[in-house]
Structures are given as structure tokens and as C-alpha cells.
Amino acid sequence: MPYxxxxxxxxxxxLELELLGMAVPDKSxxxxxxxxxxxxxxxxxxxxxxxxxPQDDRDPKSRTFRKDTYLAGSSFLHVQQLEKFDSKLRExxxxxxxxxxxxxxxxxxxxxxxxxxxxxxxxRHLDPLEAAKTAxxxxxxxxxxxxxxxxxxxxxxxxxxxxxxxxxxxxxxxxAVVDVLSFGSLPYLYEISQRADRLEVANAFGVTxxxxxxxxxxSMVDFRNYCAxxxxxxxxxxxxxxxxVPGAIDRTxxxxxxxxxxxxxxxxxxxxxxxxxxLAYFLRSHPSESSWHLTFRxxxxxxxxxxxxxxxxxxxxxxxGFPPSWEQRDLWT
Length: 333
Prior knowledge:
Blueprint: H1 10-19, H2 27-37, H3 39-46, E1 50-52, E2 66-70, H4 76-115, H5 128-131, E3 134-135, E4 138-139, H6 140-154, H7 159-167, H8 174-180, H9 186-192, H10 195-204, H11 210-228, H12 251-254, H13 272-285, H14 292-300, E5 307-308, E6 311-312, H15 316-319
Antiparallel strand pairs: 1-2, 3-4, 5-6
């Protein structure tokens, strides 16, 4: 089906919202908001205010579940409140992810440097079977070499890299290399490291299975990308389902995520809660400790209370995959 929706000016879009049943108390303010956020992006917050289609008219294949019209009592102020909440939530999550990323870099560099300060350059200091696997027509080790050398080239004007290159030349020690790698490159180095080194890193974050931590590390990269690129976290399905394996974690903190149906939300394994819970677990399990879980809990408590009649329209349990009574869980206290 060809795309047929025409371009409309902001004032016309605001008028259309009113015609579809949404109250707009201040049209000028609404236009200013849409100019900053974008009409399409605001749809992620307007969506929960739209009326449901009759059951027989819903189409899961095209993800069509709601009408274009809005519930009686819906207001553009609700949209603005949700966007403001989500913006701060993204900042909170990004701060925790930056903290986690820094700790992973340090742990990985420390484990490899103990073996050899240039362990990343020599397959003998890595996992030879894993490094020799092919992907995209080349071995994982060959791909890794291109990745870290490119990272060094891109950072050659950084003072600390320029100093090392002038004074010592190539290769650079692992602790300098991990500092210029993108977060997305860390899982590749982790996966081709020797199992003992992978376990050392995983154990530092409370995980007893090295492969499982590697999978979760990729999930944290996804999470960071959503936050860093300004994506909506409220009422979002992430691209990757995250499953918590009972034997890999401390069940006191994360055991509630191993039970089927832990949340009433649709597809909870791809919602915010499971990602945030893993991040909280990693930071709390690390020897350096963290209070990020309390900051996150405080922000979730600020989810706007939007009522249509007597019904509470948005809830962490329904819109972000939280389990009932989540605040009382050991993980968040």
C-alpha cells in the first residue's frame, strides 16, 4: 500500500488532534512542543490515550489495536507530562549505563593485562577456538584486529593516545585500547577472550556463566543505544528479548524474573523493566557498589498519574513490564 498521508503544518496537526477528541488547552504551547519533539515522535506518548478498536477489528500482524480517536478526557497536557517523564528516565538510565560501561572496560582490561599487556593482539592469549570462528567471510580475530586498529586511528589526535604512539609506538597496551573502543565493540573482545578471563569479568558483576554474561552485555549495548539516541523508553518493546537464567545469578535479587508471567505487561521480556533490573543487578553486584537502583526507583515513582474517569491509564506494570509490588523487591531496596 503506497504511503498517502499528506504534509500538514503544525497548527493543522493541533486542530486535527482536537477533532479526534483530544483537549488542547494551549494551542501555541502545543505547537511549540511539536516543533521541538516532532509530531510523529509525540505519537508514542499519544498512543496510550487512543481508543481501542473492537476485538474483531484488531490486527496483530500490522500492530493495529487502536482507533485514531482519543478517549474522552484525554489532554495534550498528558502527552507533555509523559514526554517530560520519559526524557528524565532516559537520562537516569544513561547515567547507570555509562557507569556500567566504565566498569566493564576496567574489568576486561584488568583480566587481559594480567595475562599479557598486549593480549588483545595475540590469538595465543585469547580463546583460539572462538577467535578462529568465521563471520562475514573472515575470522572473528581478523574482524577484531580491524576494529581495534580503526579505534586507535580514530583516536590518534587524543593526547593520551598520541603520547603513547610517539613514545612507544604500536602496539598499544590493552588498558589504552579499551578506553577508545566503542561500547558496542566490547562484547566482541569479551567473546574471544579466554574462558577464565570471561568468567573473571562476569563474576565481577554477579554472573556465574560467562556466555550468559556475554549475551546480557549485548543487551546492555542495545539499551545504551536506545538511551544515547534519544529513543522513547516508555511503552516501548526493545528489539531483543532478555531472559534471566536462574543458575547464572543471585536469585535473591533477580529470582523474580525467572518465573513465567512475572509481569502483567504484554511481552515483558522486551520491556524496560528486565533491562533496568539487569543493569541494577550488575551495578549492585560489582565490588565498587552503586546506588543507581534507588535513583531509578525514584524516577519510576514520578510516572504521571493519568486518569480517564476512575481508571489509571498508565502504569509501570502495564506499560513497561514491571512486576506487581516491584518496589518491595530486594533488588530495589
